[in-house]
Amino acid sequence: MACIYICDDEQGILRYLSKLLKTHGYAVESFTGGRSLLARLEAAPGVPALLLQDVRMPDLDGIEVLKRVRRLAPELPVVVMTAHGTVDDAVHAIKLGAYDYVMKPFPKEKILGVLARALEHRQLTEENRRLRDELQRGDDTPPVFASPRFRQVYDLTLQVAASDANILILGESGTGKELIARTVHGNSLRRSKPFVSLNCAALADSLLESQLFGHMRGAFTGAVLNQKGLLEEADGGTLFLDEIGDVSAAVQAKLLRVIQEKEFIPIGATRARTVDVRFVAATNRDLQQEVAEGRFREDLYYRLNVISLTIPPLRERPEDVAPLAHHFLRRFAARMKKEVHGIEPEALRSLGSYHWPGNVRELENVIERAVILARGSLLTADLLPVCSRPAPAPAADEAVPALSLDELERRHILGVYRHNGGHKSKTAEILGISRKTLDRKLAEYGVQ
C-alpha cells in the first residue's frame, strides 16, 4: 500500500484529501506545517511514496520546504498544491524538482490522476535505477576461496553457466548460494540481461505471488497501480529464487506452469504473458526428503534440478576462513574509512578453529563488528564475539562430549537466542539466517 504524506495548513483540505486517498487504497499521514513534515522525513526519509504539499504555509515557506525535502529524500516525488495567486510559485517549484502541481479547488479525478502518474513515474525510475545498478555492478566478480572443496564447486559452476539449463543450488544458510547464482548469470549468454533475486522465505504467499507475477490495478485492496512482477523484470535474464523450499503448494503449481509453458497470468489479468527466463533456485532444505513427505512437488523439483550445485559449509573448508576474513576486512575498512590493515595471528587462529554454524554470513558479521570496534590498525582476538572464539581445551581427565553437528547447531542457536534475551530478529541477524528459518529451528527445539 503506497503511503502519501499531505502537508497543508488548512484543516479542511487535510480532512478532504485524507478521506479521499484512504478510500482509494492509499495510506496517509497528514502534517499542518513544514517543520513537522521535515522532522518526520528526517526520522524516516524512505517511508512515503509521494508528498502532496501546499506551496504556501505560515510556519515555513513551501518553496523552502521543497528545497529541504529534495536534500532529505531526492527520489521522493512531490506534487504541490497552489491557489490562483501563487501559480508562479508552483512553476518555481517545478524548476526545483517537483513532479507536478494542482490548482485549488481541484476535482477528485484531477488530483487522483496526478498522484497516480507521479507514483507510476517513481516506480519506473526505481526499476531503471535497479537495472542500471545491476549492469554497473556486474556479476562476474569471482568468489573468494582457497580450498579444494570450493574449487570443485566453482569449476563446475563455470562449466554449467554457459548452458541455459535451470540450476538448483544446495547448501546451508550463509554458504554463498546467491554468489554462486550471480556467478552462473555473469558467465552465461544472458549476462547482459537482468539478474533478479527473490527471497521466497521472506514473504507471505499473497505478497510472493504479487512480487513474482505482478498484478493489475484493482486486483485487490491497495492495488492502485499496475505492478510488473519479477518474472517480467527478469525477461531474457536470470531469476534467482532463494529458499525455494519454503514456497507453498499453490505457488509451486504456478511456478511449474511458467517453467513448462514460458507464460504466466498476472493477478487480476485475463491474458497470459510470455517470458524467457532462466531459473536458478536455492534451498538449505533436503528437497528430496520434502518431495518424499509430500511438501514439495516432484515435477517442479525435477524441472529445477536439471543441474545441481552443492556448496559445502564453511566448517568443511577451513582453508577459506582466512582469505574470506581478509576480504571482508578490506571491504568494511574501506566502507567505514578506517585504517585497519590486517588481522593478528591469534585472532586468525580463533577464527580458524570456530565451527561457523552461520557459515560465511556469520564470518562477515563477525568481521564487520570487529572493524567497527577496532581502535588500531589490526583486528585482535578480543574484538571477536565470545561465540566465535574457540572453547578452552578440556583438562586431560575431562571427558569430551561426543556431539553430532545437529546438536552443536542446536546448542549454538539456543545460546545466541538466550544471550539476546529472546530477541528473534537480532538472533537471526547474528546467526546469518532468515527470521523464518530461525522460527522453524526454534519450533523444532520446542521453544514457544
From TrEMBL:
- The answer to keyword Membrane applying to this record is no
Q: Which CDD domains match?
A: AAA (cd00009)
Specify the Sigma-54 factor interaction domain's residue ranges: 143-372
On this chain, the residues bearing 4-aspartylphosphate are: 54
Query: What Gene3D superfamilies does UniProt report for this protein, alphabetically?
Result: 1.10.8.60, 3.40.50.2300, Homeodomain-like, P-loop containing nucleotide triphosphate hydrolases
Task: Check the record and name the Pfam families matching this protein.
Answer: AAA_lid_14 (PF25601), HTH_8 (PF02954), Response_reg (PF00072), Sigma54_activat (PF00158)
Keywords assigned:
Activator, ATP-binding, Cytoplasm, DNA-binding, Nitrogen fixation, Nucleotide-binding, Phosphoprotein, Repressor, Transcription, Transcription regulation, Two-component regulatory system
UniProt subcellular location: Cytoplasm
Q: What is its main location?
A: cytoplasm
Top-level division of the source organism's lineage: Bacteria
The segment(s) forming the Response regulatory domain are 3-119
Q: Which PANTHER family match?
A: DNA-BINDING TRANSCRIPTIONAL REGULATOR NTRC, TRANSCRIPTIONAL REGULATORY PROTEIN
Query: Which protein, by its recorded name, is this?
Result: DNA-binding transcriptional regulator NtrC
Q: Where does this protein come from, organism-wise? A: Trichlorobacter ammonificans
Query: Gene encoding this chain?
Result: zraR
